[in-house]
Amino acid sequence: MILNKSIRPYALLVFLLAITLLLGACGQAPANGGQTSDEPTNAASPTPASNSNDEGAARDAETVTFKAGNGDVRVPKNPKRIVDTTTFYTGYFLALGAKPVGIGEGAMANPYFEGLLDGVESLGNTASPERILELDPDLIIVFTGTEGIEELEQIAPVVAIEYGKLNYKDQMLEFGKLTGKEAEAKAWVEQWDQKIGELKPQIQAAVGDKTVSILNPYSKGLYVFGHNYGRGGEIIYGEFGLKAPAGAQKEAIDSGTGWASISLEMLPEYAGDIIFTCPWSGDTSDPKIVYDNPLWNGLPAVKAGHVFQLNPKADTYNDPISLEAQLDFITESLLSVK
To answer: For bias kind Polar residues, which ranges apply (predicted)?
Structure first.
């Protein structure tokens, strides 16, 4: 539904009243949606969004069909006011030159986006419908499974994305189609592949047969990350083709999940000759429980100085901008291994 100027105030009041009634009816719903504390999640909670439009007829005429996780969606051919509620896809839009008007607080805090967010407004950690209404979006990005998509579709086109369904290159190309930036998306993939092609032989020569682990301490032990869950895994295992310890390969990579949870006692079986690590960004426990433990300090990688600290506020992301920054750090780290 497009709101023009003549009916906008009335429609806005009606919409806010409907949202109030809906929230009241859902007041007894579980706060965490049934998610268990032992499963890491890269996804920020999706939030509703809204649109009102002063050029309704013209904008309607310039639409295309996009195949999304919520079906075929008619979207603006060249969206100008994107609201990204996912946080983890924000870097794609920034890399394409399709800067959103509103993003999650987690993306606002990503140090890799510094200097790229002028004019972008925060949706907070949990955006309210009223907050998003103020941004007048013409396209809303959410995760699949977001509650209330049907209501959002009455306000603006809603595109739902299933996290991890596509690898980051294919996802970049898809977002290029969505935003009318296909040439930019293809150019990014081409330059990325060229850079990897130049670096990969150097990295493989430096690392040789050494194994590499990505380990994050948390309250119940450690998370072991693989090839598709951020933290450099896409580069370390996917692009550079480096080896993971057998347990990590089986449980975090071959399983397709991208991660596994282990107890501290199992650490020696999952620790590689080279370790990338940082505290778990979704947990407030003290990582010293692991880092000061004799098991950790007895690892060959620790003794050899082959442990490299990731940034928990930035390296959880696997969007193009974050990957470019990770590539520089990972390359420098691996080339330093003797």
So the answer is: 33-54
Per residue in 286-298, pLDDT (tens digit) is 999 999 999 999 9
Q: Which string of b and e fits 273-291 if b means at least 16 CB within 10 Å?
A: bbbbbbbbbebeeebeebe
**Domain spans in the chain, listed from the N-terminal domain onward:** 8-180, 196-335
Question: Checking DSSP bridges between strand 63-68 and strand 71-76, what pairing results, if any?
Answer: antiparallel
Domain 196-335 class?
Answer: alpha beta
Nearest CA to 113 out of 324, 260, 258, 310 is that of 324
pTM confidence score: 0.81
Look at residue 31 in the predicted model and tell me its pLDDT: 31
Each residue of 92-117: b (16+ CB within 10 Å) or e? bbbbbebbbbbbbebbbebebbeeeb
| One CATH from 3.40.50.620, 3.90.226.10, 3.40.50.1980, 3.40.630.10 for 8-180 | 3.40.50.1980
At 180-233, the pLDDT tens digits run 999 999 999 999 999 999 999 999 999 999 999 999 999 899 999 999 999 999
Comparing 61 with 122, the larger pLDDT belongs to 122
Rounded Cα–Cα distance for residues 66 and 74 (Å): 6
What are 123-129's contacts with CB under 8 Å, separation 24+?
123/47, 123/83, 123/85, 125/44, 125/45, 126/45, 126/47, 127/47, 127/48, 127/49, 127/85, 127/102, 128/47, 128/48, 129/15, 129/16, 129/19, 129/48, 129/49, 129/50
Please check whether the two domains, 8-180 and 196-335, share a CATH topology.
Answer: yes
Q: Give the amino acid at 219.
A: S
Smallest CA-to-CA distance from 97 within 185, 166, 192, 194 is with 185
DSSP H/E element including 182: helix 182-207
Q: 21-30, 51-60, 103-112, 270-279: which has the minimum mean pLDDT?
A: 21-30
- 129 and 48 Cβ atoms separated by less than 8 Å: yes
